[in-house]
Amino acid sequence: MTTVTYIVPAISCGHCIRTIETELKDLAGIQSVKAAVDTKKVELTFDAPADEEKIKSLLAEIEYPVQGLIAL
Ligand SMILES: [Cu+2]
Fold this sequence. Notes:
This protein has 72 residues and is α+β, with helices and mostly antiparallel strands. The protein contains 2 helices and 4 strands; from the N terminus they run βαββαβ. It has helices at 14-25, 52-61; strands at 2-7, 30-36, 41-46, 68-70. Strands 2-3-1-4 form a 4-stranded antiparallel β-sheet. The longest helix has 12 residues, at 14-25. It starts with a strand and ends with a strand. The model has no long low-confidence stretch (mean pLDDT 96). It binds copper (II) ion. Residues 12-13, 15-16 line the site of copper (II) ion (CU).
């Protein structure tokens, strides 16, 4: 299992959080998603077949592009 934390500056309210969490949970392999308005971060855990490329393209498609990765 892999854990990543992304910076997603477009997060601005609870609706953004719900959209991001709902869309990402539909992606095969995603184990958990936690998005936060105050920090504009999305923390994810995933296994194959999900990978960072798929996650980032999905977020870009729904207008929440990833700006950076917070190294653990
Ligand atoms: Cu919003």
